[in-house]
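FORM 7B - TANDEM STRUCTURE REPORT

SECTION 1: FIRST PROTEIN
SEQUENCE AND TOKENS:
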Amino acid sequence: MPPTRRVLLGTLGAAALTTLAAAPARGHGPGSVPRPPIPLRLPAPTGPWPIGTVALHLVDRSRPDPLLPGKPYRELMATLWYPAQPGAGEPVARWLPPAAAADWDTYSAPALGVPTGAVDWRGIRTHARTGAPVARRAGRLPVILFSSGDGGSRALGTALVEELASRGHLVVALDSTYETEQVEFPGGRVERALPLPDDLTPDVIAALLARHSEARLADARFVLGTLDALARGDRPGAVTGPLPDGLAEAADPGRTGVLGQSLGGSVAAQLAHDEPGVRAAADLDGALLGPVATSGLAKPFLLMASGAKTLQNEPSWATCWAASTGPRHALRLRDAAHGSYTDLQVLLPRIARHLRLPDVAALIGTIDPCRSLAAQRTAVAAFFARYLAGRPTSFLDRPGDDWPELDVLR
């Protein structure tokens, strides 16, 4: 069987994920898939604002696609999440749009040990209203750019980005077309990830990750430019589709942070290193690539680790930490794993109530899923509240007072 995208997703932080990705499902062969498909829900956000969302189709005609040779422009999908006007009656958004959900069911779910047709992926709903007006009383909104691990859909961070939106941020979740396993564009067109090489040696993986990182950095700069244009009152040609009422006036690009999981976390740190307009970066369990790994950051930086990782035994963290001069915080979720920093943390245990799956602990650890998500939400929200919104908090220095699951790494 050729390697799946999920194999590569784990290479920046969890060797066990590689094993899990290639493992077949156990206990349910053909004809034994549950009927009806298992329904799933995401935990509701806890902030004071209801939330809205809109998916944007972005086209960058200033450069050829960095991953698909011969394509003369770069085409992206992004989802915006924001505090919404209370009482909005727009429809609730899906976790994945229909065609992407079908593709996930066919290709991505089996790589996790979940048979095709076993789960109602299309039926998973978020807590955001599609196209709802922006809450005017929320004022100008700090901006956070989010990206998932290599190969992972932007949807895998939904539970976390919804929390940030409910607390008064504008979050932009971005896919990397032809690297993300499936990206659905308007009209139901799905672009799949390019095939991986058959021989995934360490050198091949390193080259792939470097190429993907470079493409993501260029994508992020393009999106930040698009947001700047919107904040000036322009409607860039990159944006196709309607914008929610009040969105253009709401964004405050002067307070921009970046957040990512795995490769997305590495890109977040590098973007903060390179871009003067980015004020803070949070990395969820991602080893660092590029110059930031040795030159460090002079800006606020949050690193959240899993498993037995420390600032000493992950080489890129050690060198970055030693060279950094900005405020920095390193926390570790005890008994967590690399996949704990994705929506799989809460979705897989619910599936496992109905199906016998491969070793789920290899992917999401043994930490209680609800406590894991709540601790992540609290830590990430505290970080951006402190460094984007200017709201003092001592949580990052003493998280164990409320969350014994969180260790401070020094």
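SECTION 2: SECOND PROTEIN
SEQUENCE AND TOKENS:
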Amino acid sequence: MTFGSNMIRAFGVVRLGGLPRSFWVVFSGQFINRIGSMAVPFLVLYLGDQGLTAEDAGWVLGAVGVGGLVSQPLGGVLADRLGPRFALVAGLSASSVTIALLGMARGLTAVLAVALLFGAVADMYRPAAAAVVAAAVPAADRPRAYSLIYWAVNLGVALGGLLAGLLAGHGYGTLFAVQALATGAFTLVTVVLLPADRPAREQVPTAERLAAPGVLRDRLLLALTALNLVNGVVAAQITVGLPLAIKDDGLGGSVYGSVFLASGIIIGVTQPLLSAWLERYDRLVVLGVSWLVFGLGIAATALATTVVEYLVTVCVWTLGEIGAASFVGSLVADLAPDRAQGRYQATFGWSYAAAQLIGPPMGAHLYATAGPTVLWWTCAVLGGAGLAGAFALAAPVRRRLQRTSKPITLQKAV
């Protein structure tokens, strides 16, 4: 028992030790924020209670998605121009206010307007938070740092889901209040504990500011963003194709709920161990293999007909998700010039918002018209495309990092 305790303690020191306070501010803030982010998943049910139709709810969710296309780019620009702490506080404050307003809005027109505004500010904080971590954490420790934040976010989501299920019985309006308070708490933590931004003129030399890079001209960043968009389209089938398949097999909603519970448990238990092992390998290789595993895991839904079989597929695609999501943030941070961390993270983050607009209607259309088999084969093919694309980028990324004197923390071939 003592030996086991010492092993756990030593592992904890290795994984958690040596990271600066600014990282832990972002880590704890993300954890709190994700626990409280419970209103949007229940938005359709809430709108139904307000007398809106399912079609109306679809328009509202679409408005949130459209707004999300500008949210991260806006946050990235603010982070680079006015400082990541400023962008964090501005984005979190706006998100807290607008989610509260969304819970108070009545009538389709008002709800649509607030939903669009909420979507436009909800993710402003993300590139700013990533920029804070990139600035505070040495490049050699970034894979570990971004991996820990991914872990915290998913633990927060899992706990938030359990808490939301309990609070929903007291009225869906409670969820909006909790989300507003949680986001407000992240804002307060940021204001109190995060160091003030340096004036822009002190961050980089004048010549470098005038020659600020255009992220849309960085082909490596755009290629990585495109590959992540492809993976995001596959991930969107968790909310579209998967529930349809479960329903067609005559299984209830509780089975679909168990999918998220199982995925959360797997991430919570295995992510620290798996990411520590994967840090020994080249990040692009890890990404490529992980995107393939994820695509094949989602595609394996075609083979599942029982609860146990569905849970097996969840284990497969969750492991792929862990491998991809744990390191991609550090890779983007290493590719970005220091003066453009916010915009690089925002450009990459935009792929998630775009995938949420493209993936669900594409999946629903393929499932309804071409059939489930075509949808699942498409996911497998897209996973293979992710593998091929990541392997093609491995050498150019390595050359970029060597040229910019940023250490390549994961170089061993799988």
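SECTION 3: OBSERVATIONS ON SECOND PROTEIN
The mean pLDDT is 86.
The chain has 19 helices and no strands.

SECTION 4: SIGNATURE
Preparer initials: ____
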